[in-house]
């Protein structure tokens, strides 16, 4: 082995060491700063959604004229506030009814467990008995109340972040241009930022519209079958649809399980399972790809890895944020020559965002 070979090995080892330290520090900051970073990330996504909604409103012709930007943004904010109020009304109106129905569901679950054990030829399943003994509906709702309280607290923080982002979005391009003293580099930085914003806005807008359609169809199916709290389940399915792949499965399994403990026969369970399953298959495999197209061009395997990683690091909010984060990371890597290989690995067909523009 020559001296140059040994120097190259030492250099490579030093690079691996440096990158390992950077990765460890980054992971530590992501975990330790989750209480600060999660509301900030949600605020950026809501800001992108507001801009996408504002662009949609501005493109509408009202008396053969386009609305001014400030009015379109104001209407977008009002629509988002109205949607939040709608969510609050649904949850608040059905909270008491859910608590009253909990003992009935518990009794039906006991009866269902007895039928299953009898069918299996077992006198009693110890795990089921222990589960029923430990099931405390009161403590469950206490924990749920604490969770809702924490979410409400974050909502105000997110609203403050979004307000300041909206107030400063006009001067953001000038700030990005001043970060690079060279004019060509400044234009490239502005181009990358615009590309990130465009793709994230497109993803959030299409995903929101598709999720609204999914929630509405789910509400109709659950209402026709007679499932309790159909509006609440439709709302939950709407939010679960933001989680790639897994969310659509959970949006079928959870309402179907409730149907099992609500009704005395298995027929409603079959209807709900078949109806919601068919809906998720048609929307997820036909309608959503028709609107989303290949614009994101992310590998399905990479999406699953990202979903798992951010779920471990940030929990459920991380699962919602996984795809927008991956879109942002892939666009940045595609515009940096030294990191372009990462963008190729993240893509579905080897074409990066930059090559798609050519």
Secondary structure elements and pairings:
Layout: H1 3-32, H2 34-59, E1 61-62, E2 65-66, H3 69-120, H4 126-134, H5 137-168, H6 172-179, H7 183-225, H8 230-240, H9 246-262, H10 267-292, H11 300-314, H12 316-334, H13 340-346, H14 353-357
Antiparallel strand pairs: 1-2
Helix pairs in contact: 2-3, 2-5, 2-7, 2-12, 3-9, 6-7, 7-8, 7-10, 7-12, 8-9, 9-10, 11-12, 12-13
Structural description of this entry:
There is one protein chain. The chain is mainly α and 358 residues long. Among the domains are: 202-293; 296-358, no CATH class. Helix content is 84%, strand content 1%. The protein is built from 14 helices and two strands; from the N terminus they run H-H-E-E-H-H-H-H-H-H-H-H-H-H-H-H. It has helices at residues 3-32, 34-59, 69-120, 126-134, 137-168, 172-179, 183-225, 230-240, 246-262, 267-292, 300-314, 316-334, 340-346, 353-357; strands at residues 61-62, 65-66. Strands 1-2 form a two-stranded antiparallel sheet. A hairpin with a 2-residue loop joins strand 1 (61-62) and strand 2. It starts with a helix and ends with a helix. Mean pLDDT is 76; it is low at 7-11 and 131-142.
Share of helical residues: over 70%
Number of strands: 2
Rounded Rg: 25 Å
User: What does the overall shape look like?
Assistant: globular
The tally of helices reads 14
Assembly type of the chains comes to single chain
Side by side, the strands of the main sheet go 1-2
User: On the 0-100 scale, what is the average pLDDT?
Assistant: 76
Unreliable stretches (pLDDT < 50, length at least 5) are 7-11, 131-142
Structural class based on helices, strands and sheet pairing: mainly alpha
Distance between the termini: 45 Å
């Amino acid at each position: 082995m020559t001296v140059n070979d040994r120097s190259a090995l030492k250099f490579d080892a030093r690079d691996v060491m440096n990158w390992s330290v950077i990765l460890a520090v980054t992971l530590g900051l992501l975990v330790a700063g989750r209480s600060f970073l999660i509301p900030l990330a949600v605020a950026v996504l809501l800001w992108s959604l507001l801009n996408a909604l504002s662009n949609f409103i501005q493109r509408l012709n009202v008396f053969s004229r386009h609305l001014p930007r400030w009015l379109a943004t104001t209407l977008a904010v009002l629509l988002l506030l109205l949607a939040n109020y709608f969510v609050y009304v649904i949850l608040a109106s059905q909270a008491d009814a859910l608590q009253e129905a909990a003992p009935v569901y518990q009794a039906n679950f006991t009866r269902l467990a007895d039928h299953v054990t009898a069918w299996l030829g077992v006198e009693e399943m110890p795990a089921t008995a222990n589960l029923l003994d430990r099931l405390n509906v009161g403590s469950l709702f206490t924990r749920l109340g604490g969770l809702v309280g924490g979410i409400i607290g974050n909502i105000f923080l997110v609203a403050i972040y979004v307000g300041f982002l909206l107030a400063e979005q006009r001067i953001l391009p000038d700030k990005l241009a001043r970060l690079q003293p060279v004019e060509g580099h400044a234009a490239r930085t502005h181009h990358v930022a615009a590309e990130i914003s465009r793709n994230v806005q497109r993803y959030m807008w299409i995903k929101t519209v598709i999720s609204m359609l999914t929630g509405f169809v789910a509400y109709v199916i659950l209402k026709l079958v007679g499932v309790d709290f159909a509006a609440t389940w439709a709302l939950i399915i709407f939010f679960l649809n933001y989680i790639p792949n897994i969310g659509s499965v959970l949006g079928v399994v959870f309402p179907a399980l409730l149907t099992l403990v609500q009704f005395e026969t298995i027929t409603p369970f079959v209807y709900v399972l078949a109806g919601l399953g068919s809906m998720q298959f048609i929307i997820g495999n036909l309608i959503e790809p028709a609107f989303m197209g290949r614009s994101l061009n992310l590998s399905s395997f990479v999406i699953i890895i990202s979903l798992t990683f951010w779920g471990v690091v940030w929990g459920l909010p991380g699962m919602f944020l996984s795809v927008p984060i991956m879109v942002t990371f892939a666009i940045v890597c595609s515009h940096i020559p030294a990191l372009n290989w990462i963008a190729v690995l993240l893509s579905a067909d080897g074409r990066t965002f930059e090559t798609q523009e050519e």
